[in-house]
TrEMBL record:
Name of this chain's protein: 3-phosphoshikimate 1-carboxyvinyltransferase
HAMAP family: EPSP_synth
Pfam families for this protein: EPSP_synthase
Keywords of the record: Amino-acid biosynthesis, Aromatic amino acid biosynthesis, Cytoplasm, Transferase
Domain annotation Enolpyruvate transferase: ranges: 12-424
Annotated source species: Aquibacillus rhizosphaerae
Length: 430
């Protein structure tokens, strides 16, 4: 088992950096490029393990995809040209690949078998399998088709109106993608807005989709055209450095060219509410997504309550927000975040256990956590539990702990951020 010893820093963090491409947008660029007709070129693609799973899945269905560093060329022949793969599709650790792909497979006249790693095999797939079955697909698997491995027999789909019971962009996207293959108009109704990259990307490929007060409607049987997509920096990756700059004395860090889609910028709102010195300069719109630079200077965080509609807009940032809250001068409460229990780990349990091991005063609740603040963190031996965001949270914590941290299982960070430690090194004030 690999491990990494991480040392606290003497000086702050300083400088500018760019983070890799957005994971959600990178997945979708491959998916839409593969089901569109003609060539798609993706630049600043996230070279992480999860997005490579999406590429491999479409290659297994006969799509020609060539990757050269962060540039990917896809030669799509339309959704109906996707072939039956000869071998099972390995989804690795990627929930996004699993849920979005299921939507497409449901409407193809083929048989598919899907499996993932140990973590993904514990995550619920019925949240998307249930509406897809209603549309006409046959999906079976472990525990009555709740968990991977799954067998999918696609069919001619009929459109549905689906009121999603979970606050999940993956579920919304899975149903909308199936809607592309269904007769008529498929509707997804969501009570809380989740990231809308599927909707934006569909439009970039010439598709038609509307969104009106929580109802997203997609017409079936549309033909999409290949295009060029430039992927903005991932705000969920940037968040680790923004918090790092906030909690380390004397720091000033600017992350450039970060995606600022409003369904993703909850971290900026949280940092502002916590009195962190943060400036956002919006520079331009690329491929329908706003992009800008974010600067954070070291600050003392103020404790706050985080709940309600902001939760889906910070869902992947909650581990690093929890670390920030340990440095606040009072009690921070995070609630309405039960979805954290269905991530790569149960992130309520893994965040709380890890920060407790580092000396923080933090408690789990059913749907979130209470962080009491004013903590001096100590060193310890802690495990990422194979969860990339827990691994990165631990690495940022190590900048301010009294002694070194031994991080077990750091390799999982490559799922979303293979160059994480190199980028962190760039802003260390040596
Ligand atoms: O649609 C997406 O790209 C994602 C949606 C979120 O998951 P849920 O939809 O399960 O909340 C998020 O946690 C994940 O990292 C990426
Ligand atoms: C939850 C995440 O990803 P996924 O659901 O795609 O595995 C994440 O990146 O934090």
């Amino acid at each position: 088992m690999s491990e990494k010893v991480l040392h606290p820093i003497d000086n702050g963090l300083r400088g500018n950096l760019q983070v890799p491409g957005d994971k959600s947008i990178s997945h979708r660029a491959i998916i839409f490029g593969s089901i569109a007709k003609g060539k798609t070129t993706v630049t600043h693609f996230l070279d992480g393990e999860d997005c490579m799973r999406t590429i491999a899945a479409f290659q297994a269905m006969g799509v020609e995809i060539n990757k050269n560093g962060q540039t990917v060329e896809i030669y799509g022949n339309g959704i109906n040209a996707l072939k039956e793969p000869v071998v099972p599709i390995n989804l690795g650790n990627s929930g996004t690949t699993a849920r979005l792909l299921l939507g497409i497979l449901a409407g193809l006249p083929h048989h598919f078998t899907l499996y993932g790693d140990e973590s993904l095999s514990k995550r619920p797939m019925d949240r998307v399998a249930i509406p897809l079955r209603q549309m006409g697909a046959t999906i079976d698997g472990r525990d009555n088709g709740t968990y991977l491995p799954l067998a999918v027999r696609g069919a001619k789909l009929t459109s549905i109106t689906f009121e999603t019971p979970v606050k999940s962009a993956q579920v919304k996207s899975g149903v909308l993608l199936a809607g592309l293959l269904a007769k008529g108009t498929t509707e997804v109704v969501e009570k809380t807005t989740t990231r809308d990259h599927t909707e934006n990307m569909l439009k970039a490929f010439g598709g038609h989709i509307t969104s009106d007060t929580g109802t997203i409607s997609i017409q079936g049987e549309q033909e999409l055209q290949g295009t060029s997509i430039h992927v903005p920096g991932d705000i969920s990756s940037a968040a680790f450095f923004l918090v790092a700059a906030a909690i380390t004395e004397g720091s000033s860090v600017t992350v450039e060219d970060v995606g600022l889609n409003p369904t993703r910028t909850g971290i900026i709102d949280v940092l502002k509410q916590m009195n962190i010195d943060i400036t956002v300069v919006e520079e331009r719109t690329i491929g329908g997504e706003p992009v800008g630079s974010i600067t954070v200077n070291a600050s003392t965080p103020k404790p706050i309550v985080i709940d309600g509609e902001i939760i889906p807009r910070i869902i992947d940032e909650i581990p690093i927000i929890a670390l920030l809250a340990t440095q606040a001068n009072g009690k921070t409460i995070i609630r309405d975040a039960e979805e954290l229990r269905y991530k790569e780990t149960d992130r309520i349990a893994s965040v709380v256990q890890t920060l407790q091991a580092l000396g923080a005063n933090i408690e789990a609740t059913n749907d979130g956590m209470v962080i009491y603040g004013n903590d001096t963190l100590t060193g310890a031996e802690v495990d990422s539990y194979g969860d990339h965001r827990i691994g990165m949270m631990i690495a940022i914590a190590s900048l301010i702990t009294k002694n070194s941290i031994t991080l077990k299982n750091p390799d999982c960070i490559a799922v979303s951020y293979p160059s994480f430690f190199n980028d962190l090194d760039k802003i260390l004030d040596k």
